[in-house]
Design goal:
The chain has helices spanning 26-53, 60-89, 96-129, 134-137, 140-166, 183-187, 195-228, 233-241, 244-265, 271-296, 298-314; strands at 2-4, 7-9, 13-16, 93-95, 170-171, 175-176. The chain is mainly alpha-helical and 316 residues long. The chain has a single domain, classed as Rhodopsin 7-helix transmembrane proteins (Rhopdopsin 7-helix transmembrane proteins), CATH 1.20.1070.10. A 3-stranded antiparallel sheet has the order 1-2-5, with no helix packed on it. A 3-stranded mixed sheet has the order 4-3-6.
């Protein structure tokens, strides 16, 4: 790695410092993050066991939920090992290309999660507004195409971010004030003009998160109109009850996503607060998603109870 006037030319490694200002307590912060990761991994693995094996859950909503669970597992695997190594073992260095790979996987999986939430909103719209055609519209082939399109969109658009970073050669620092390789945290290290990178980050964010959020909101406006036109109160409550889990997951994901997105670019949030919240944004939704859907679905609750009951019996 060559140095030119305190600048770094084509750096081979970067240094992740974790949470700036809280280095002295990072060791202890790692334990609640580990607990959240374990809950997320356990919950989503259980969903991936139950949904394929339970015939009554072979419906579009739960197929999308299985994809969401796989995405959440990938997100935890992409961020947690290195973050905990920084907190517990001071293992702060990372190869520059590995950093870009982590950046790609974290942001691509975030974008996939957003796309799956949009697909789930469309499923709820069809199920409530056009129930007689629900199975004929959302066939297996259509579901597969939707999932593939979501994956391709995330891969192509997010793939632009590390490619554009690779065209930068001179950096004023190799120290990233973050617990993982976040796009803007890496771009801010550049000593060259990075306006294209910043513009591309905004474009990808608004093209995916903004587009998805708008269409999810439109779906729920149409859903609520259809629900309020139902004559029987019980029918209205039953229809609304089928959406509550998705609404909760949608709100937690997008509120935290846009706070992290805007505070890193335009806000004046203190770095420790921003980094803590952005890490919470990545790890808490994967832990909450299986809990929310597990609590709402009787079949999932029953199968989870069977899994733990059989496990308890086998240990006696």
């Amino acid at each position: 790695m060559a140095s030119i006037n305190t600048s770094y030319l084509n750096p081979e490694t970067v240094i992740l410092i974790g949470i700036p200002g809280l280095e002295h307590v990072q060791f202890w912060i790692g334990f609640p993050f580990l607990a959240v990761c374990l809950v997320a991994l356990l919950g989503n693995i259980i969903l991936l066991i139950i949904i394929p094996t339970e015939h009554s859950l072979h419906q579009p909503m739960y197929i999308f939920l299985a994809v969401l669970a796989a995405t959440d597992i990938g997100l935890c695997a992409a961020i947690a090992p290195k973050m905990l190594a920084i907190f517990w073992f001071r293992s702060c260095s990372m190869a520059f290309d590995t950093c870009l790979a982590q950046l790609f996987f974290i942001h691509a999986l975030q974008c996939m999660e957003s796309g799956i939430l949009l697909a789930m909103a469309f499923d709820r719209y069809v199920a409530i507004c056009d129930p007689l055609r629900h199975t004929s519209i959302l066939t297996s082939s259509i579901l597969c195409r939707m999932i593939v399109i979501v994956a391709i969109r995330a891969t192509v658009l997010v793939g632009l971010l590390p490619i554009l970073i690779k065209r930068l050669h001179v950096f004023h620092s190799i120290v990233i004030a973050h617990s993982y390789c976040e796009h803007m945290a890496v771009v801010k290290l550049a000593a060259e003009d990075a306006q294209v990178n910043k513009a591309c980050g905004l474009f990808v964010g608004f093209t995916i998160l903004g587009f998805d959020m708008i269409f999810i909101l439109i779906s729920y406006i149409l859903i609520f109109q259809a629900v309020f036109h139902l004559r029987q109160k019980e029918a209205r409550l039953k229809a609304f009850n089928t959406c509550t889990a998705h609404i909760f997951v949608f709100l937690e994901f997008y509120i935290l996503a846009f706070f992290s997105f805007f505070s890193h670019r335009f806000g004046r949030v203190a770095p420790p607060t921003h980094i803590l919240l952005s890490t919470i944004y990545l790890l808490v939704p994967p832990a909450l998603n299986p809990i929310v859907y597990g609590v709402k679905n009787k079949v999932i609750r029953k199968r989870v109870a069977q899994i733990f009951f059989l496990s308890h019996i086998s240990h006696q």
